[in-house]
Specification:
The complex is a heterotrimer of chains A (602), B (291) and C (321). Helix content of chain A is 29%, strand content 18%. In chain A, helix 12 runs antiparallel to helix 14 and helix 18 packs antiparallel against helix 19. With 602 residues, chain A is α+β, with helices and mostly antiparallel strands. In chain A, strands 1, 8, 9, 10, 11, 12, 13, 16, 17, 18, 19 and 20 form a twelve-stranded mixed beta sheet that branches. A four-stranded antiparallel beta sheet of chain A has the order 4-5-7-6, covered by helices on one side. In chain A, strands 2-3 form a two-stranded antiparallel sheet. Chain A has 19 helices and 22 strands. Chain A has a domain of 246 residues: Dipeptide-binding Protein, Domain 3 (Dipeptide-binding Protein, domain 3), CATH 3.10.105.10. Chain B has 291 residues and is mainly α. In chain B, helix 2 packs across helix 13 and helix 5 runs parallel beside helix 8. With 321 residues, chain C is an all-alpha fold. Chain C is built from eleven helices and no strands. Chain C is globular. The chains are: A alpha+beta (602), B mainly alpha (291), C mainly alpha (321). Chains in contact: A-B, A-C, B-C. At the A-C interface, helix 1, strand 8, strand 10 and helix 16 of A face helix 2, helix 5 and helix 6 of C.
Chain lengths: 602, 291, 321
């Protein structure tokens, strides 16, 4: 009774197999395609010349893509993620912005001055700026914004941007509810605002760069209720001063921005910008078909897709280094269980990690890692080796005196040999100088595909120089960071990535001894002193002074090695060549979007 | 003598004969054996290490050295396919065995003793059945800091036993009042003896059939969870992990050799097991028309 | 009957409580909380997160947290999401539920429309070419993992042929009414088929064997012997009897369908409960995890209950008391 069924199944199997073969055959022809464009790579991003002589035209819709939906918080003082930032960058503005050399430039403030000891910053605002609902933008809006962030209820309501108000005068008193008056930001008149700092500040403009929210909209909403308010969430109710208004959304799928006709720098050319949430898996297809016009932050396109997308012909790719980087950290010290319990970060109690105590060992490990190989292989060359934990775009980056660990397994081996880390028992792995087992535990998180792939590759590289590495199962980010923070464990090597801002190169947030994010528990008094010195007023008002100090600090970092900086990935932003007028900055593609226009506008 | 003759015609042997006549089931066994052999002798079939990545050979097209090319970490796809089969089969088989153990023991206890024990076990089963399997499994997986094969198998077993338990219990309940059981009890046979001599052999048909089909669904579950990144993590090669890398047009389009083979691997393995399972069902229950 | 229903519900309540305790305990025992995964911005003082933890009560003992949560649930308040700031859990679930529900119903509709006729036809013409074809399809349908099928479907029908969209639920905000309805259906085709594939295969096999069973039973033979036409026999007696187990199966399987949607939604980045659930798990958004688990638990209960009730209506021999 099964005779026929058997036959039919066999046919079905053949069909499936045939399909596979067909697909494989298909592949042979198309395989070359991504590579073909290799020669054209030279003129990246300069192809728009063909339209250069055209005049900008009004009208048209542009479609942007992001890989994850915004959480839905469109209030600049409460949002947290880059996905919301994609929308807020078009709808809201700050007093100051940054230019391509990362200097602060006028935004809603047209000019400013500081007093002698940099404790006061007076900002003169643009007049005639209109909110999306037609109200005038004034100094009161600025005061209101900062007062809201400094408000006693702000953090409990979910706000996290207190860093912007902490150095301001009277913050402590205000946030503790001792006074109703916040001295830190004061409206001198309708178009003049004064920022007062508790102590001389070396980078006052950074603190004045926060996005401004409208007082007339939020005045009657207590800070504690702002996150729930429609004014923070609903299209049409979210009001900013930016060139586009947030007018419509299909939550989790589409977010529509429309031109703000009264924009103070002149109405935008584009009628609409539509943001769509799409899966990374289909991104290149959507770019090709024109369903999506641009993709930028936070992920851009994948390095592996670069060739394929540039081969499409209609897509421009902006490639520039990112401010963040990936590291492999060395656990210099561990915290004690008691400290973890009490939440104390007290360097005096730390327990040194004997396995990695010798800086020479860490240096040998650094030599054993083929960072160039990781960049060539995993990143398809779309990244750069960093020799210090400061982004290359910063004035402070200086590798002239750093030790640069160019891949050299032989140096690594001989260094370890000299230190007495030799394979005493013939198991293929080195023992420590006492002849005891020397196994380095290696942990890494999931969530970043390239980082996940790098871990087993690094393990391989270390094992090639005879280091016994115990690569453990990756952990999910929430669990990973908890373990990394608690750190009363047997961790030795760990991977983590930092995405950093463009405002200031100050490394204390990550590398100061007591910093929570100093996951290596690096405790070096010299480093501490240098970092403080670089921030000390009044000497540090001079950038050149800071540059010298940071040069020394970077040298120290590279010798004491709390971490190996693995790579800084380039951001790859892509857009359809119908979009004109894009002037990317080192940290964003969304520069002056009111000047963007599309060549096929009616 | 007459006793021996009867034994020769035990339902088990009859079923076995019927099974052998089922061509699809035999085909299933052949396919499964081939896949199993491939998994066992993986080291002989390829000299590539499935977890060794070569930075100079990322996403390479098939060549003589790498007959299915390499993946995004420069690892040999063919080696990953073979070693991935190990994970799939091991997970499927051991999860099935573990589930079988829990299911049969609890089902037997519930069905044989009845009363409070039955009540307790069945309420527990209801409880687990009230939550969709994936929801429960995902919550537990998220709880674990890192997932190993053993843990994974345990989670699957702990969340899937109720259906098997119900089947065993049902069979036992119906056997409990049958005359030969009452007879055995009357002559003072121990509970243990009754369960093993009389109950299990009579319930073996449905148990084997369900266990087989369960193994197939466990292989699918494992690959599905690995696919969404909630299963056995990289760099361990699993078929789900391999397909997971194909969530990208570049790979879908230009590297079908990377994702079609593991997909077919799952398909063929599950198909083969289902054929065997159906064959067993027909063999144990010849009246059934289910196919 | 009513007594039976009430008793079933009464039994379910303690189960629900135990269930919520287990899931709550599991979720809380997991390392990390809603803040650990995101506290990686050096410009943000971790102290801020500590204050927020304190404010949300995450530092209280777990039993205290459970009681607080349970007290609110009893009042019908599912609380606020810890990840989506300022969003109530109810509003989040409410926003996604329709998408998953539509997808579930759509795939169920495809399943029934395809499976029942094929199953009947196969049973009436057993061992015909058609029957073998259907059987083959059935085997493949059960053996193909839905994520693999989904990928293949995206590749062929969305990328290569461009017939169906592979993403989202709707094209744009500017279409309304019937157009919008059609657009939504268009978006549901690929995920719907992917989700319904295994179900279609198993319902089809089930239908076939049920119809075969009934056709072979004594009373049908009698009816035929009395001269009733084959058609009449089929529609008057067979279908009615064969469809009962199908409906029961549906009742029991609807919950499974919803949880199967977790993977399918992931493949098509379809904004439903499944994607919300996965996100909530990775972000440790306890209130949302709890709400979805309970919601699915209740759905399964209701599905089972409805199946039982329906069973007793179509088959008067069954009496519950």
């Amino acid at each position: 009774m099964f005779k026929n069924k058997y036959g039919l199944l066999a046919i079905a199997l053949l069909v499936v197999l045939g399909l596979v073969l067909a697909a494989c055959g298909d592949d042979k022809e198309s395989e070359d395609e991504p590579g073909v464009e290799e020669e054209n790579k030279g003129n990246d991003g300069k192809k728009e010349d063909e339209n250069a002589d055209e005049e900008p035209k009004s009208g048209g819709t542009l479609t942007g893509a992001m890989y994850s939906a915004p959480a839905g918080m469109f209030n600049p003082i409460f949002y947290e993620e880059a996905y919301e930032a994609n929308i807020l960058s078009f709808t809201h503005e700050s007093l100051v912005g940054q230019n391509e050399s990362l200097e602060f430039i006028p935004g809603l403030a047209k000019e400013w001055e500081t007093n002698e000891d940099q404790t006061e910053l007076t900002m003169y605002l643009e007049e005639g700026v209109k909110w999306h609902d037609g109200e005038d933008f004034t100094a009161d809006d600025v005061v209101f914004t900062y007062k809201s962030i400094a408000h006693p209820d702000y953090v409990e309501a979910g706000g996290i941007r207190t860093a912007y108000v902490q150095p301001l005068l009277g913050y402590e008193e205000y946030v503790n509810g001792e006074t109703d008056e916040f001295q830190g930001v004061e409206a001198v008149d309708d178009y003049t605002v004064k920022f007062k700092f508790a102590e001389p500040n070396i980078n006052p403009l950074y603190y004045a760069s926060f996005t401004i929210i409208p007082e007339h909209i939020f005045a009657d909403i207590p800070v504690a209720e702002m996150p729930e308010a429609e004014e923070s969430r609903q299209p049409g109710k979210v009001i900013g001063t930016g060139p586009f208004k947030f007018t419509e959304m299909v939550e989790r799928e589409q977010y529509v921005l429309e031109r703000h006709d009264d924009y103070w720098q002149g109405a935008a050319y584009l009628d609409k910008i539509v943001w769509k949430v799409v899966a990374q898996s289909v991104m290149s297809g959507l770019l090709e078909s024109g369903e999506v016009d641009f993709i930028a932050d936070p992920n851009g396109i994948q390095p592996a897709d670069y060739d394929m997308i540039s081969a499409l012909g209609n897509i421009e790719i902006i490639e520039q280094p990112d401010f963040g980087y990936q590291i492999m950290g060395f656990k210099h010290n561990h915290r004690t269980a008691d400290d973890v319990e009490s939440g104390a970060i007290n360097p005096d109690n730390w327990v040194p990690n004997e396995k990695l105590a010798d800086p020479k060992v860490r240096q040998a490990i650094a030599y054993a890692i083929n960072r160039e190989g990781l960049i060539e292989g995993l990143l398809y060359g779309r990244g750069a080796v960093l020799n210090s934990p400061i982004a290359k775009q910063f004035w402070a980056y200086d590798e002239s005196e750093t030790t640069n660990y160019t891949y050299d397994p032989d140096t690594a081996k001989s260094m370890l040999d000299e230190l007495g880390y030799v394979d005493a028992d013939g198991d293929g792995f080195r023992e420590n100088p006492d002849g005891e087992e020397w196994i380095l535990n290696f942990d890494y998180p999931t969530g970043n595909e390239l980082r996940e792939k790098s871990a087993p590759l690094i393990e391989q590289m270390l094992e090639e120089v005879g280091i016994n590495v115990n690569l453990r199962q990756p952990k999910e980010m929430s669990a990973y960071v908890e373990d990394l923070t608690n750190d009363n464990s047997d961790w030795d090597l760990y991977l983590i990535g930092w995405s950093l801002g463009s405002a200031d190169p100050d490394p204390t947030g990550l590398w100061a001894t007591a910093a929570a994010y100093n996951f290596s528990r690096w405790n070096n008094p010299d480093s501490e002193a240098l970092m403080q010195q670089a921030l000390k007023a009044p000497e540090a008002f001079e950038q050149d002074y800071r540059k010298e100090v940071y040069k020394e600090w970077q040298k120290l970092f590279s010798e004491d090695l709390p971490a190996v900086i693995l790579y800084a990935q380039n951001s790859l932003w892509a857009y359809n060549d119908r979009l004109q007028g894009v002037q990317p900055l080192p940290f964003t593609m969304y520069n002056d979007p009111h000047l963007w226009w599309v060549s096929d506008a009616e | 003598m007459s006793k021996k003759r009867k034994r020769a015609q035990s339902p088990f042997q009859l079923a076995f004969r019927r099974f052998l006549k089922n061509k699809l089931a035999i085909l299933g066994i052949i396919v499964l054996v081939i896949i199993t052999l491939g998994a066992i002798f993986a080291p002989l079939l390829t000299n590539h290490d499935p977890t060794y990545g070569d930075l100079l050979k990322i996403e390479k097209a098939p060549s003589e050295e790498h007959i299915l090319g390499t993946d995004g970490s420069g690892r040999d796809n063919f080696a990953r396919l073979l070693y991935g089969a190990r994970i799939s089969l091991v997970v499927g088989f051991s999860a099935m065995l573990f589930t079988l153990l829990i299911g049969v023991v609890l089902g037997a206890l519930a069905g044989y003793y009845g009363g409070h024990i039955d009540n307790l076990i069945m309420r527990l089963a209801d409880l687990i059945l009230a939550i969709p399997f994936l929801v429960l499994a995902l919550t537990i997986i998220a709880l674990l800091e890192s997932v190993t094969v053993t843990l994974f198998v345990t989670i699957i077993a702990l969340t899937t036993w109720p259906s098997l338990t119900r089947i065993v219990r049902g069979t036992f309940l119906s056997l409990r009042e049958q005359e030969f059981v009452l007879g055995a009890r009357a002559i003072g046979a121990s509970d243990f003896r009754i369960i093993f001599k009389h109950f299990i052999p009579n319930a073996i048909g449905p148990i084997i059939v369900n266990a087989t089909l369960m193994m197939a669904s466990m292989i699918i579950i494992e690959s599905g969870l690995s696919f969404i990144g909630m299963g056995i993590p990289q760099p361990t090669p699993t078929w789900g992990n391999m397909i997971s890398e194909a969530q990208n047009i570049r790979i879908l389009q230009y590297h079908p050799e990377a994702w079609i083979p593991p997909g077919l691997g799952i398909l063929l393995t599950v198909l083969a097991i289902n054929f065997i399972g159906d064959g067993l069902r027909d063999a144990f229950d010849p009246k059934s028309n289910r196919r | 009957m009513y007594k039976y229903i009430i008793r079933r519900i009464l039994v379910f309540i303690p189960m629900l409580i135990v269930l919520s305790m287990i899931v709550f305990g599991l979720a809380k025992a997991a390392p990390g909380d809603p803040f650990t995964g995101r506290m990686l911005d050096p410009n943000i003082d971790p102290e801020v997160y500590e204050q927020q933890r304190e404010a949300l009560g995450l530092n209280d003992p777990i039993p205290v947290q459970y009681v607080n949560w349970a007290t609110r649930i009893v009042k019908g308040d599912f609380g606020e999401s810890m990840y989506y700031k300022g969003r109530s859990v109810a509003s989040l679930v409410w926003e996604r539920l329709p998408n998953t529900l539509y997808l579930g119903l759509f795939s169920l509709a495809i399943t029934l429309i395809v499976a029942i006729p094929i199953g009947i036809y196969s049973a009436r013409n057993p061992y015909s070419m058609f029957d073998y074809g259907a059987t083959t399809f059935g085997f493949f349908g059960l053996a193909v993992p839905n994520f693999f099928f989904g990928l293949v479907a995206i590749y062929f029908f969305a990328i290569k042929l461009g017939w169906f969209p592979s993403q989202g639920t709707i094209t744009g905000t500017d279409i309304t009414g019937f157009q919008e309805f059609l657009d939504r259906i268009h978006h549901m085709v690929l995920p719907g088929i992917t989700l319904g594939l295994a179900g279609t295969a198993s319902y089809m096999r089930y239908m076939r064997s049920e119809v075969l069973d009934v056709l072979g039973s004594d009373y049908i033979r009698t009816a035929k012997a009395k001269g009733m036409s084959e058609r009449n026999v089929l529609y008057k007696h067979t279908l009615r009897n064969a469809i009962i187990p199908i409906i029961t199966l549906m009742g029991f399987e609807f919950g499974a369908l919803l949880s199967g949607a977790i993977i399918t939604e992931q493949v098509f980045s379809y904004p439903g409960l499944g994607t919300l659930f996965i996100n909530s798990i990775t972000n440790r958004d306890y209130p949302v995890i709890m709400a979805i688990t309970l919601l699915l638990g209740v759905t399964i209960l209701i599905g089972n209950l409805l199946a039982d009730i329906f069973y007793s209506i179509v088959d008067p021999r069954i009496r519950y008391d």
